[in-house]
């Protein structure tokens, strides 16, 4: 005789693996959807949060300086986010336009002489002025190239940015054409090391400065595409070995 309990047990043993596989596949799919949602929403959310924090910080610093008569928040039943940032941009533009005429240049020279004669402020002012003039100048070559340097020892390569060419005694005592290279730390690229290296020891990369900074901040997780131009001589050599090209 056939035992009914044995038949039920055998039927359950057949259906159990199928159920487990279905549940496992569903969990894996939900997990993939979850990480895909994080991948899509995290960059957008962080960007919006940082932009909102910047606008809120600028508004908090600029709006209290606006006279009550001209403050739009005193006439509206709600606050206008970004009004402080807009006023700051307009003010900086007007200051830049003012320095283009004779009166503005005279005011700039007067304030420059005053700050240069102040003992404590003089060093900080000159350093900040030189940094901003170097970085914001349209002809500046600061942070225009990404290079590889052997640092901190031979065989170990680090990502760096050419910030300029040293002058004076550094260039003279270096024994050749030197380049100023900033090697940032990971994941905080605002700190790092300043190296003066011979130009012949630098390996120039095809990636942009923005891509290099992304690579540093991500710790190498984000890798830019290869934009190197193939060597024409190698292409011709390969073509010649295969019977292509001219005679």
Automatic annotation (TrEMBL):
Keyword DNA-binding: no
InterPro entries attached to this UniProt entry: COV1-like
UniProt keyword list: Membrane, Transmembrane, Transmembrane helix
Pfam families for this protein: DUF502
Transmembrane segment boundaries: 32-55, 75-103
Protein's name in the database: Membrane protein
């Amino acid at each position: 005789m056939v035992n009914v309990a044995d038949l039920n047990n055998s039927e359950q043993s057949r259906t159990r693996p199928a159920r487990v596989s279905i549940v496992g596949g569903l969990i894996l799919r939900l997990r993939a959807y979850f990480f895909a949602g994080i991948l899509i929403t995290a960059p957008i959310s962080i960007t919006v949060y940082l932009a909102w924090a910047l606008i809120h910080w600028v508004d908090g610093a600029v709006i209290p300086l606006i006279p009550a008569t001209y403050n739009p928040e005193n006439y509206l039943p709600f606050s206008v986010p970004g009004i402080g940032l807009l006023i700051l941009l307009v003010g900086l533009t007007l200051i830049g336009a003012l320095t283009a005429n004779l009166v503005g240049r005279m005011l700039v020279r007067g304030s420059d002489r005053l700050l240069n004669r102040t003992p404590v402020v003089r060093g900080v002012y000159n350093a900040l002025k030189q940094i901003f003039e170097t970085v914001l100048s349209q002809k500046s070559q600061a942070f225009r190239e990404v290079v590889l340097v052997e640092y901190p020892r031979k065989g170990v390569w680090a990502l760096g940015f050419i910030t300029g060419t040293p002058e004076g005694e550094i260039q003279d005592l270096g024994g050749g054409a030197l380049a100023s290279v900033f090697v940032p730390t990971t994941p905080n690229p605002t700190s790092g090391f300043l190296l003066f290296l011979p130009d012949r020891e630098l390996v120039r990369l095809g990636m942009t400065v923005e891509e290099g900074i992304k690579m540093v901040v991500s710790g190498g997780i984000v890798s830019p595409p290869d934009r190197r131009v193939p060597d024409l001589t190698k292409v011709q050599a390969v073509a010649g070995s295969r019977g292509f090209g001219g005679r």
